[in-house]
Amino acid sequence: MGDLARAVFLDRDGTLNVEKHYLSKPEELELFEGVPESLNLLQSAGMELFVVTNQSGIGRGYFSEEDMHRVHGRLCSMLRPYGVTFRHIYFAPEVPGQTSYGRKPSPRFLWDAARDYRLDLKQSFMIGDKLCDLQCGWAAGIATSILVRTGYGAQLEQVGVEPEGPFHRVNDLPEAAGWILQRAQFQ
Known about the structure:
Order of helices and strands: EHEHHEHEHEHEH
CATH class: Alpha Beta
Mean pLDDT: 94
Strand order of the largest sheet: 3-2-1-4-5-6
Number of domains: 1
Radius of gyration: 15 Å
Oligomer: single chain
């Protein structure tokens, strides 16, 4: 276990950036306040960073896979000045109900990352704004799933939906990063 890395798996829309209806234009990407700095703190503490995102807009024909890659290119270029790089961005283009290899809540992308990047999932975290993000983390066997109130997270709370597994609720990614760094025992 000593040579396995720890990771933070991040949902994209509603977690890293402001939720836009089927975001497909790079110029419309708007990061939440404190996201670059928070990711830098996590990465500086030795955490590997991954994005795991459902992009059903591709499957619905609202935008192309290339459009999504351009948005991801902008995301990476916005984070680069802060020294932040993602090890991998996993995406599922299928619509809900369609057969999909990795559409959350499937844990397959997390398992792939664990295998390909030698990660210890039991020492890793999943952060997102939807139940499927939490469920993905639980199914993968990660340490803690964290629900942010940004994006759809606050709506879940307002309508009284309580996740049925262990999770931690925070206001936003900076608070999630602080919580992880306080609890993680870095060697």
